[in-house]
Design brief:
Layout: E1 3-5, E2 14-17, E3 20-30, E4 38-45, E5 51-57, E6 61-63, E7 67-77, E8 81-85, E9 92-96, H1 97-100, E10 112-118, E11 121-126, E12 130-138, E13 151-156, E14 161-165, E15 173-177, E16 182-186
Antiparallel strand pairs: 1-6, 2-3, 3-4, 4-5, 7-8, 7-10, 8-9, 10-11, 12-13, 12-15, 13-14, 15-16
Length: about 190
């Protein structure tokens, strides 16, 4: 396994500390007036999403995590776990609702997603940044409501709720940014 020293660290790098995989989200090289330089980083855990602050000095080392991304198909939610299938090997993997996290509100049965594995164990799910979903419930359109920046809530077929413009109606398919949880536009269908 690759090993990283203080000089190798940078924003976006994936590292492993005490058996837990992290991603560096903030990086700062500090050169004080007295004493040796050091690196202060903020790292986000792939396991529980917690952000920690850590300081690296010359000679400190950390490992590269054994992470693997696999494209898998979301099958269904059995109440406790979400079931995914590798479309090449037909191997199925169950991931707890807690580990799936926020991604769950954007997933439809049959959707292709990225499943992140650490040392062979599934630890997270990443949905595409833009998904197309059908509106199953929203307030009706009223005359004069088409102008301005006013928005109304809409429930999507996955159960997620987003704010949409008044001219968008129930039954229409829209494009949604899953990172920000916002309406982008009507889908061309």
């Amino acid at each position: 396994m690759a090993s990283y020293s203080m000089g190798d660290l940078k924003k976006g790098l994936k590292i492993e500390i005490d058996g837990i995989p992290f991603k560096i989200v903030e990086y700062q090289h500090v050169k004080p007036g007295k004493g040796p330089a050091f690196v202060r980083i903020k790292i986000k855990s792939f396991i529980d999403g917690k952000v920690l602050e850590k300081t690296f000095h010359a000679g400190d080392k950390c490992e590269a995590p054994n992470l693997e991304d696999k494209k898998m198909q979301y099958l269904y939610d059995d109440g406790e776990n979400c079931q995914f299938m590798d479309t090449e090997t037909y191997e199925q993997v169950a991931i707890s609702d807690e580990d799936v996290g926020e991604a769950k509100k954007w997933m439809l049965d049959g959707m292709m997603v990225n499943v992140l594995f650490h040392n062979g164990k599934a630890i997270g799910v990443e949905v595409p940044q833009v998904v197309e979903l059908k509106i199953v419930e929203t307030a009706p359109n009223f005359k004069g409501d088409t102008q301005g920046s006013n928005k109304k809530p809409a429930t999507l077929e996955t159960g997620a709720v987003v704010q949409i413009p008044f001219h968008v109606l129930e039954g229409e398919v829209i494009r949604v940014d899953t990172v920000r949880g916002e309406y982008i536009e009507k889908a061309n269908k």
